[in-house]
Structure formats: structure tokens, C-alpha cells
Amino acid sequence: xxxxxxxxxxxxxxxxxxxxxxxxxxxxxxxxxxxxxxxxxxxxxxxxxxxxxxxxxxxxxxxxxxxxxxxxxxxxxxxxxxxxxxxxxxxxxxxxxxxxxxxxxxxxxx
Amino acid sequence: xxxxxxxxxxxxxxxxxxxxxxxxxxxxxxxxxxxxxxxxxxxxxxxxxxxxxxxxxxxxxxxxxxxxxxxxxxxxxxxxxxxxxxxxxxxxxxxxxxxxxxxxxxxxxx
Lengths: 110, 110
Prior knowledge:
The complex is a heterodimer.
Chain A: E1 4-7, E2 10-14, E3 19-25, E4 31-37, E5 44-49, E6 55-58, E7 61-65, E8 71-76, E9 85-92, E10 98-100, E11 104-109
Parallel strand pairs in A: 2-11
Antiparallel strand pairs in A: 1-3, 3-8, 4-5, 4-9, 6-7, 7-8, 9-10, 9-11
Chain B: E1 4-7, E2 10-13, E3 19-25, E4 31-37, E5 43-51, E6 54-57, E7 64-66, E8 76-78, E9 87-94, E10 100-101, E11 105-109
Parallel strand pairs in B: 2-11
Antiparallel strand pairs in B: 1-3, 3-8, 4-5, 4-9, 5-6, 7-8, 9-10, 9-11
């Protein structure tokens, strides 16, 4: 139903490489969001997408809201060590309820 | 501006004990949420509230109760703690879109 499938589950990359992760669902969402979680902390909002087809950047991060409203991707360019963490996609429903993907664990090797 | 504040940060409970996880926000947000995060997993919605005096169940409400007597506070109650409730609990709030999360409460039931 309203479950999100996030991939990949984990990534091990070299510093300077680009990263891409995505989320898909069989349900339609009003808003797509991408969060980053550091160890022992709550998720922090990176990018919010409000319209189908929207492409938004935040520094080295770029995210898109899929045309079908059922998917989104996040790209990180020129990764640096502090990009390490768990990235979660989230889809927000009409009633402000939010569903989360299982996360992508990113490791960046210097 | 403290944002979303959760207490306690850590707690160990014995099976059958009860406790209340506190959550307070000072941003005058109407919407508040409780999530649990199990190891290596995304967040699952326990309960949410769209305003003072209104609460509703999320995906995994069994074993929990909430109340929302004020806009600021949204406590989560565990009446009879079970090992399956060992998790990290996050409270979040939003005025409309994009949540602000607290730093979490790590609960262990033994």
C-alpha cells in the first residue's frame, strides 16, 4: 500500500564520487522529502519536493519528484567524508502522515 | 528556540513496567507525531495528532497511548512494556510540510 522501497540499502564510495539513491512506491504522495540521520540523532531535512516533476538543489544535493508522484531520487555530487550517514526518503500523504523508506547507509572512503 | 525536545534520552525498563516518553515543541506546530525506529529500519508511525485534543493511530499503535492536552506537548505512554518495544523513539512536529525531529529516546525493555 503506502510502503516506500528505497535503494540501494548501502553504498561504499570513494571521496569525490557522485551518489544516487531512489525511492519508489505503489502509492501517490503529495510531498517527497529526503532526510539525513547521523548516529544518535534524529533525521534532519535535506530537501523537500512539493510538485510532480520538481527538481530541487541544495548545494551538492539534487532531488526530483517523479512525474507519477510515486517516486523520487536524490543525487549527491562530489561526495565528502561528512556525507557519511543514513539517508531516508519520505512521502507525505494528504493528511500530513509521512511514510519512510528503510534508508540508504552511505560510507565515504577518504 | 529549542525546536522539538524529547526526554529521557535513554531508559531501561523491565517487562511489565510503564513509562511516559515526553515530547515538547516550542514552534506552535499543530501536527505532532511519534515514530519508532528499529535497528537498520526506517521509521514507523505510532500515533499522530493534528491539534490539541485530537489524536489518531498510525501504523503500529498497539501497546501505546498518547494524549494532546496542549499544542506544545505530546507524551507517549507505554503501559505494559514488552521486549518488542525495545527501539529508538522519535517525536516530530510540523506546521504543514517537512517535519522537525527530536533527538530520540533509546528504550530497552529487559
